[in-house]
Design goal:
Keywords: Coiled coil, Signal. With about 180 residues, the chain is an all-alpha fold. It is about 90% helix and about 0% strand. It contains 6 helices and no strands.
């Protein structure tokens, strides 16, 4: 038993001398986390086609391009769906069947409950009128928003400034982390 105690006291300091200190472990964790974050950001930049240190202008341009591309894709998709419905007899028949059933239900309601049918018709006209007004106002607002010198430019400038400030803050944080990693206690 004494031999074990003596051996333990003799070898423990030698083993502990090679063990990492708490500060070394924390620095290593910070470094590994930083490396993983940097790799994820690099991968994302490559996927989006953005430079290594993007400016706010570059990101605003990228967002516009992606937004325009998405709008075009939606238009193509809608045209494709309409074309499929028009060219597919089964889809056309199903759509006609739905319209016929709705018309049938409407006629039945008019016959059995004329007052309710009138109110429902007025409500439908009111909803359609409201919808038309809303869509016209949205279109008008979008045109005003998009025109040169409109709110879109203001928002883009604010976004650009936020991105630039965020990039600056991120670089300062990265520099601080790099200093902390490379600094030995």
């Amino acid at each position: 038993m004494r031999f074990l105690l003596v051996a333990l006291f003799a070898f423990v300091p030698a083993i502990l001398a090679d063990a990492p200190t708490g500060a070394d472990t924390i620095q290593q964790m910070i470094k590994e986390g930083n490396d993983k974050l940097q790799k994820a950001l690099d991968d994302m930049r490559k996927q989006l086609g953005v430079s290594e240190n993007p400016s706010g202008d570059e990101l605003v341009k990228l967002m516009k391009e992606k937004n325009d591309k998405m709008g075009e894709e939606i238009k193509k998709w809608r045209a494709k769906v309409e074309e499929q419905i028009k060219n597919n007899p089964d889809a056309s028949a199903a759509l006609k069947n739905i319209k016929d059933k709705l018309k049938e239900a409407q006629d039945k309601l008019k016959k059995e409950n004329p007052d309710i049918a009138k109110n429902a018709e007025k409500l439908g006209e009111s909803i359609k009128s409201t919808w038309d007004s809303i869509t016209q106002e949205v279109e008008k607002s979008y045109k005003d928003f998009s025109k040169k010198g409109g709110k879109q430019e203001d928002i883009e400038n604010v976004f650009k400034n936020i991105v630039d400030a965020g990039v600056k803050a991120a670089n300062e944080l990265k520099d601080g982390v790099d200093k902390a990693i490379n600094k030995k206690p």
